[in-house]
Amino acid sequence: MIILLGPQSPRPNLGEAVELLSVDGPFCVVTAGWQERSGETEALAEHLGRKLINLKLYERAERVFAEDPEFFAAHRRRQDRLRKLQGLYRLRLAPLLRTARRLFEEDANSDPDLLQGEQKSALEMVRILDRHHLTRLRQIHAGWSEQWRPLERDSLRRERRRIEKQVADCDAVLIAGGHVAVLLNRARLFGLQQMIGSRPLVAWSAGAMAVSERVVLFHDTPPQGAGDAEILESGLGLARGVVALPHASRRLNLNDRVRVRLFARRFCPASAVTLDNGSMLWWNGDSWSGNRAARRLTAEGRLAEVKDHAGGD
Amino acid sequence: MQAAIRKLRRRRKLTAKDIDRFIESHTFPIVEGGSVTFVYRGEAEKVLLQHWIYALPTAQPFQRLAATDLWYLTVDLPENSRVEYKIEVRSNGKADWILDPLNPLLAHDPFGANSVCQASGYERPAWTLPDAETRSGRLETATLKSKVFGPRQLEIYVPGRFRGSRKYPLLLVHDGPDYVRYAQLKVVLDNLIHRLEIAPLIVALLQPGKRLREYAGHPDHSRFLVDEVVPFLEREFPLIPEASSRGLMGASLGAVAALHTAWSHPGLFGRLLLQSGSFVFSEIGSHSRGPEFDPVERFMNRFREKPGTPAERIFLSCGVYESLIYENRSLAPMLQRSGMEIRYREARDGHNWENWRDRLRDGLSWLFPGPLWMVYE
After folding, report:
1. Is A217 an 8 Å CB contact of chain B?
2. Is the ipTM of this complex over 0.90?
3. Residue numbers in chain B where pLDDT is lower than 50
4. DSSP per-residue string spanning A10-58
5. Hey, are the CB atoms on B133 and A9 less than 8 Å from each other?
6. Strands B70-76 and B35-41
7. Global pTM?
8. Beta strand A271-275 with A201-204: parallel, antiparallel or unpaired?
9. Which of A9, A36, A217 sits opposite B373 (nearest CB)?
């Protein structure tokens, strides 16, 4: 079973989610998104009333980088390239999204056929760019892995074996929120996705984003910039058919039907789902369902409940 | 004249009860589209509006409504304006400047309080109000034994979730305690850090001794900051030792002090936030603002001659209702030409703390951006 949650503050619902897993054995937890605070899991253990095994991916990565400076330098170079690529993608994305938004704001009454054709095409341009960006990202990762063969580096292999053992001893995995790029990066570095396999999983906020297929960064009203949602990376792909939107009520103009419509259509067939504090979304093996606080963005620009939803609209 | 008053005037016979009902059924001043009607009720010989909008005649007289004790004045006020004012009531040869008794909205400053008129479209930003969900930072007090000024108290803002293992940017704020008191700086920092819009910062709140002397481009002040305050804070807190993570901020004369310090120590402060700077200068002849501005004029004239590169990024803001708008407007393109990154913002507001408060998000989030796009807790 996979459960996705929103932020755990101010009212946590992780305990409720863990109960649904019906698992008695030990849990391991990934807190790499908390960065230098990643060792501070006491409050989490207290909330759940059980012992947690912290996989310490953040600290382990720091150790690997310190022990293998050549590998660390290569890692930094790849991150620099990824950042540059993200900048170029953003440059191309901005005018396409501006155009699509403008077309979706047009009055449809005058000549619906004419307008809809243009809207569809403008949206498709955005989707093509998103796909292209994902392909470019995959190419960079593949090229880098081939050149540096991370799994053959001693320090990394050693840490990875330890993590594997810890995960194997656990009956469920928890993935916390925080810095989504750091979390995803550390999870990838140690091959967490393969270790988790089909174990029951609860992930919240950035954790929910990282386990999905695509990590989409979003904020409609940032203090600087246009607020264009963008793809950061492919996710771990453990939660399929869903785009996780933590803090959606604060970050998105959910009353703006044009923005909601565009968001839903852009990432279709995956469902974009709001994950605010108290939200819960679960995968039963065939489809997604959610509680009332988890809402799906629809192609009509509205919010709808998530019930037996396989993804798409 | 506005609709509300016009309607009242149309009545043939106005009674005290009619006026009571009018007062009860409106909030004051009455904002209708692009015009605002100020209202005063009471016996007086004359009632005047005293405001701080540069270029508009001050002491504008109210009109008495027929033979009642209701006085009113309608003025045009562009959208999004925010104006501070008092009402002058003259009677029995006396003139009292009072807060508007019908308007509960006040702005405070070191000289007391003013009534506030918010024109159509203006809304106090939500991030300036306390938020129960926000993690609060703390204010610490330290005493610095300065060789330049003798013992000086420093207040230091430490963000919520501060960790000694992490390194932080540093911001030095001129008139810092006033920023906290009158521009809600602590609430703003708490909110913007919590919302990830700015990086968690260590903020030193500077309090001057002789403000007019120290902040007017005096070398003692910049020596105090560079040789004593920054090294002291670097010893006490884990700070990022780079210019891009070190900033100076100030309003009015405080902005002059910030610019002067950065200019006289290039490469040390990478970020400047300058609000309504008293950047008095003269192309020919001299300024007309009083002798306390002589050193400011001397500094600004030297600065304008050779601006150099005092910082990497400078955020400038000024209210269009301020007498300093000309000085600030002319500074922005000059700084841009010097190759620095410059953001210049104007607002329909005056030379006051709430104007400076309302621009903080724009300035701080540009100078010290937070991990807004990456962090989802």
Report:
1. yes
2. yes
3. none
4. SS--HHHHHHHHT--S-EEEE-GGGGGGTT--HHHHHHHTS-EEE--HH
5. yes
6. antiparallel
7. 0.90
8. unpaired
9. A217
